[in-house]
Amino acid sequence: DSSDDIEDVSLFDADDDVSRRSKKSKIRHPVASFFHLFFRVSAIVVYLLCELLTNSFIACMVTIILLLSCDFWAVKNVTGRLMVGLRWWNQVDDDGRSHWVFEARKVSAQGGKTSSEAESRIFWLGLITCPMIWVIFAFSALFSFKVKWLAVVMMGVVLQGANLYGYIRCKVGSRKNLTSMATNYLGKQFLRQVRHLGLQKAW
Question: Which keywords label this protein (predicted)?
Fold first, then answer.
């Protein structure tokens, strides 16, 4: 259900110096890059400061959920496509069956890419870091018995976690699972270290 031509978007730091030098560091979509971080960081800031600014739990909850919803829509429909050439969505076929589609932009015939290294780093940094922060908030609310805040925090975990999962599936391809991706990555790192040690001993 997804494209097999996957563009190599930087999820982990690439070790290929040639490809690294060929990538441009210029931010081509500054507005998209700004809003990729704005809504999710704003939701975290409001959560941290809302009890200092107001005593209304409802106002805080509505504000945070609105920011999280805007972030989910913007990241899923705009910033992922512009910044790293990835997108995911759900579609219903003629038989009424629901399918999840995970796509990556095809590399052009000239081998050019429209995403830059700077945008890729901003995208993945925001996409990975913020859900981790909401997970920390979830444990904090649970252990401090702030039950009313737990529902709000879980909204942050679910909405931002869904985007993280969707874009990782786009990155690795729908036919690959995350376990095989991690195994392959660690295997490459291990072989690289073995070769490096072998060269050191040879000298």
Answer: Membrane, Transmembrane, Transmembrane helix
